[in-house]
Design goal:
4 domains, alpha+beta, Thrombin, subunit H, single chain, seven-stranded antiparallel beta sheet, Pdz3 Domain
C-alpha cells in the first residue's frame, strides 16, 4: 500500500444563520424581523416498520463479489553481503551470506475465469515469487503478464479454471455519492469488506494519474483489491490512501475500472505494456484569471499551449489557444483529465470533443492513435574520455515521451541512464536533455556522436534540466 503523507487543513464554517438552519423553528434575525425560511429540514428518525426494512444488508453483494477477490503474497530473496576487506584483498570478491527472504502482502481481483488476476504494480514490485490465495483457501503460483508502473497496475496469470470473476463497470457512469464496497486483505487479517461512497471522481494526483476517491476504509494490504458497486461490478482497483499515521482516515483512492480494463485487454493481446492513445498536446487548466481575460463566464476546460505536428488534434483541426471543454460530453478540467478521457478509449476509435475558439463553441472528432516511434530512439552508450562517458542517450520521440511522462511536444536527445564513470562525476543525470556541445546544436544522437568525435579536449556543454538551461565548461 502506498501512503501519502499530507497536512490536514481544517475548514471553519462561517455565518451565524448556518447554526440554526434546518431546526424547523422560526428564528429572530439579528437585524430584526423574522428570520428567512430554513434551507432544509432535518429528516425524522423512525423505527423500521417491516421485516424487509430490518433485514436490509450488503450481504448479497458481498456473497457475489467476495469470491473473486484474492490475497497476494510475494517473496523477494535479498542476498546479504559480508564485507571483509582482507578476504576481498586476497580473493578479489565479497562473501555472500544465504539469502534472506522479504515478504509482502496485497490483494487482487480475478477478472477472467481462466485465472487472470489484476493487482497493483507496487504489490509485486521486485518479487521473486508471487502466490495468489483464493477466497476458498486454494493457493497458486502466479506469473506476470503485464506491469504498467504509470498506472500502478499489474496483470497476473494463475493456472486455474472456472474461477469466479468480477465484471467491469464503466467507471464514468459512477456518480459522487454512489454506494461502494472495498474488498481486500488489510494487515493480513483475512478478507475484509468496508462500505462507503464515491467521494470524488477523476481526482488527479501529483504525477498526473487519475483516481476515484472513496471514504470506504482502505488500509495496508488492501492494495490491488476491489472497489465494487451495489451490483457487485468492479468500478476500481484500490491503490492508495491519504494518511498521516498509515491507517485509514476516510480518504482512499482507486484506479478507475476503465484503466484496469485497458490493462487486461493489453495483456490479452500479448503486450507486456498498456496500449494507450497518444494525444501529443500540452495545456493548462483555465483559471479564473484566464477566463476573465478571455471573457468566459466560468473557468472551465483546458487551454492548449502546444500541439505536436503529428498529433491527431492537428488532423481534427485544432490549434494552440483552443479550449477543450469536454470529451464525449464529459467535462475536462486539466491535462490529466483530458489524457484520461481520451487515453482510456480504444485505439482506432474517434471520440467527439467540444472546444472553444475565439468565443465560439465547435465540435470535432479526435482519432485515437498510438504514439509513433519516429524518429527511431537510436539508444547509444557513450564511451571515451568526454563528459558524457558512461551515459546512455536516446532520441526523444512521442512514444518515449509518453512512456517517461515527458512534455508531449518535446524534441531532442535525452540521457536515459548514467553508469559509473565520467558522466556521473560531472553530475550528468537521467532526464537531462543535451542541447549543445561545443557550439553544435544537438537535435539527434548522431549530432552528439559527431560533436564528441571532433572535440579537441575542451568542452562547452549546455543541458536542459527541469526547464532550466545549465552550462558546463571544462578541459580534459
Amino acid at each position: 500500500m502506498r501512503k501519502l503523507v499530507a497536512v490536514a487543513a481544517l475548514a471553519t464554517l462561517t455565518g451565524i444563520g448556518a447554526f440554526a438552519a434546518g431546526s424547523g423553528i422560526a428564528q429572530q434575525s439579528l437585524l430584526g424581523g423574522a428570520a428567512p425560511a430554513p434551507l432544509y429540514t432535518v429528516p425524522q428518525a423512525s423505527v423500521p416498520q417491516s421485516q424487509q426494512q430490518i433485514s436490509l444488508s450488503f450481504a448479497p453483494v458481498v456473497r457475489s463479489a467476495a469470491p473473486a477477490v484474492a490475497s497476494i503474497f510475494t517473496k523477494t530473496h535479498m542476498k546479504q553481503r559480508f564485507n571483509d576487506p582482507i578476504f576481498e584483498m586476497l580473493f578479489g570478491q565479497r562473501l555472500n551470506r544465504p539469502s534472506r527472504p522479504e515478504t509482502s502482502l496485497g490483494s487482487g481481483v480475478i477478472v477472467h475465469e481462466s485465472g487472470v488476476v489484476l493487482t497493483n504494480a507496487h504489490v509485486i514490485e521486485g518479487a521473486d515469487e508471487i502466490t495468489v490465495a483464493l477466497n476458498d483457501r486454494r493457493e497458486f503460483q502466479a506469473r506476470v503478464l503485464l506491469v504498467d508502473e504509470r498506472t500502478d497496475l499489474a496483470v497476473l496469470k494463475i493456472e486455474a479454471r472456472s474461477l469466479p470473476t468480477l465484471e467491469f463497470r464503466d467507471s464514468d457512469t459512477m456518480e459522487v455519492g454512489d454506494l461502494v464496497l472495498a474488498i481486500g486483505n488489510p494487515f493480513g487479517v483475512g478478507q475484509t469488506v468496508t462500505s462507503g461512497i464515491v467521494s470524488a471522481q477523476t481526482r488527479t494526483g501529483e504525477d498526473g494519474q487519475v483516481f476515484i476517491q472513496t471514504d470506504a476504509a482502505i488500509n495496508p494490504g488492501n492494495s490491488g483489491g476491489a472497489l465494487v458497486d451495489m451490483s457487485g461490478r468492479l468500478v476500481g482497483i484500490n491503490t492508495m490512501i491519504l494518511s498521516r499515521s498509515g491507517g485509514s482516515n476516510g480518504i482512499g483512492f482507486a484506479i478507475p475500472a476503465d484503466l484496469a480494463r485497458q490493462a487486461v485487454e493489453s495483456a490479452a493481446s500479448g503486450s507486456a505494456t498498456v496500449a494507450r492513445a497518444w494525444l501529443g498536446v500540452d495545456g493548462q487548466p483555465v483559471t479564473q484569471e484566464i477566463a476573465e481575460s478571455l471573457g468566459l463566464p466560468l473557468p472551465n476546460g483546458v487551454i492548449l499551449s502546444g500541439i505536436h505536428p503529428r498529433s491527431a488534434f492537428v488532423e481534427a483541426g485544432l490549434k494552440s489557444g483552443d479550449i477543450i471543454l469536454d470529451v464525449e460530453g464529459l467535462p475536462v478540467s486539466d491535462l490529466a483529465s483530458l489524457n484520461y478521457r481520451l487515453g482510456t478509449g480504444r485505439l482506432g476509435d474517434a471520440l467527439p470533443i467540444s472546444y472553444l475558439r475565439n468565443g465560439a463553441q465547435k465540435n470535432a472528432d479526435v482519432l485515437l492513435v498510438a504514439a509513433p516511434e519516429d524518429p527511431p530512439r537510436d539508444v547509444s552508450e557513450i564511451a571515451g574520455r568526454n563528459p558524457f562517458s558512461g551515459a546512455v542517450i536516446a532520441n526523444i520521440n512521442p512514444a518515449l515521451a509518453q512512456e517517461e511522462g515527458l512534455d508531449p511536444v518535446l524534441e531532442g536527445v535525452i540521457v536515459t541512464t548514467v553508469q559509473r564513470g565520467i558522466a556521473a562525476r560531472y553530475g550528468i543525470r537521467p532526464g537531462d536533455i543535451i542541447r549543445e556541445i561545443n557550439e553544435t546544436d544537438i537535435l539527434m544522437v548522431s549530432d552528439v556522436e559527431f560533436a564528441l568525435s571532433t572535440a579537441a579536449g575542451a568542452w562547452r556543454i549546455a543541458i536542459e534540466r527541469d526547464g532550466r538551461l545549465l552550462r558546463l565548461n571544462t578541459r580534459g
